[in-house]
Structures are given as structure tokens and as C-alpha cells.
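Researcher: Next sequence.
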Amino acid sequence: MPLELIADRPGHALLQTYEEPPLEPGQVRVRSLFSAVKHGTELRGFRADTPDATDRWDGRLRLHRRGEPEASRFPRSLGNMCLGEVVEAGPAVDRLKVGDRVFEHLPVRETHTVEAGRLRIAPGGISPQALMYWDPADVALGAVRDGPVRLGDRVAVFGLGAIGLMAAQCARLCGARWVAAVDPIERRREAARRHGADLVIDPAATDAGVEIKERTDGAGAEVVLETSGAYAAFEDALRACCYAGTVVSSAYYHGEQSLKLAGEWHRNRIQVVSSRANSEPLPQPGWSFSRIQSESLALLVEGRLRADDLIDPVVPLARAAEAYHEIEAHPERSIKLGIDHAMAGSAG
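Model: Next structure:
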């Protein structure tokens, strides 16, 4: 029987067998080729340790209902992106055929039975690894547009996970003259360096705010993109920002609340923008999340955003649960987890 990656309870991932349902007329069956997980949003749900789990989100009022926990969402599927091949098509399907390569937001499992209209045909000329970056590229594109980053700007990016690495590249595409990249994890700093960051900073070893101000003749960055979700990084982002500059946050903050809104915030008239590309309506005329998605995918296909080497680590499905626990416990050992379904390997 085929296998899928799930969490049966908070903080515990495992592979389990499942049965595919009968194929409906408008559905296709897809064999997975490459999958990836989302380290931010998905791990929050996996841990169930944020207000999303403890204080129910009220969509009508758009706030968390304090003290009203969500109903249990376990067991839950893990993973958020998949490239696969159509192996069977229902009689009412005319857009797809057996052998087509397709992709979409789908969990980590060996096969998928889904409505044909939900799937996108995979473009040629792009690697599976780069295609897995379609989702973080969406968020990053939304953030630089919300800044907005303008021609000649100096930009700092705090947090170099998948979104931050895409944000640094997007900032350059928008015309940033100088880009600083900040993260305590060495492999992520090196990835940013490979992809063109002018300055990489370890905030555990250097005062990032001071370093960025000194490297910009005392001014600071006009736009600071905070993607990490760490309160300390948000504080450093404020310190690195120029007078009347903009801090754009695309993150969901959790953990101990130790943010200090001290002198930098009070004296420097800094604007703070909350960015979420799929919260509509978007603030820019003519733009929708669908357009953000189309543009970010085009940038990846054209090679203007580069992500071939940014899936790290890549493991076989048999090791997916083990690797999932690894990225949760040791984020310093990963950038974005990928699962190659053709890769040979054995569990644990």
C-alpha cells in the first residue's frame, strides 16, 4: 500500500499506509515525483503551539478568540507542494492526459487523487527543486511590493529561510542597489552569499543594526524585510532601518514576547508594514494573489529567481518522518526539506 507523511499528534511525524479512493469522472490520479514541506506555517501547525491552536481564529471579526482553543486538527497531512505525473484520468477529463507532469499545493504522499481542474501543468525548463520554491516566492514577491523596494534602494533581509532567500533575490530584481542578508544559520548565510547578497551577517556574532548602519554611511536600509518570525530579529530590523524607512514583516511571530519598541522605533518614525500576499484585497491596484502567483512562477521559470540549490536537505520518502523531526529540532541543518520519491533509501 502507498505511504503518506502525517502528524498523528502535535510534534510527531510518521509514515502511514493509506488507500486511494475510486477515481471519479473529473479526477486524475497522480504519482508523486518530488515533494517539499513549508518550514514556517506548516511547522506552526505541526507543533500546535501558537494562537492558531490555543485561541480560535474568528474569520468574521478577524481576530483570535482568547481562551477558545481550536478543535483538534490531528491527525493532519504534512507537506505543501508536489510535482507529479498523471498515471490515470477519469472519463470526463480532457485537459490532462496520462504522462503529463503537474504540480500544486499537495501533501507528501506517494499518490494523489484530485480534481483535474485543481492541478497546473508543470512548465518545461525548470527543475523540481526550483518549482518547490513557487510558494515562498509568492510571499517574497508580495513583501517587496508592499515595501515597496525601489530602484537604487538599500535593502536588508532578516531571516534567510526559503522566503528570506527569495526576498533577497526579489529585492535585487526590483532594483535594490545593495542587499544585506542576516541569519544566525551559516548554511543559509552562505546560500544568500551565493545568490548575490552584498553583505551577510551573523546576528549572534555581530550587532546587525550597527553593521548595516556603518555600511550605509550611518543611514541604514530604506527597506528592511523581516521574514524570520523572531521577536529579536524584528527588533534588529528596526535598528537597521533608516529614518522614516520601512520595515516589512511577512512573518507570524511566536514564542516569548520580548520585543522592545525603544529609541529606534520612537525617534526614527519607522513605518511597519504587515505583508501577506494571499490576504486579499491586496493594496496595489490591479494586483491579486492570483497575479502574484503567476508572476512568481514566471520569474522562477525564466531563471530570474534561482532556487535549484536551495532545497536542502533532499531525502527519500522512507526517511521523510525522520527528516521532518530533524528540521523541527535542528533548523541550523536545513533550508527547505525536499522529498525525492525516486531516491532509494531506508527508514531510520
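Model: The chain has eleven helices and 18 strands. The mean pLDDT is 95.
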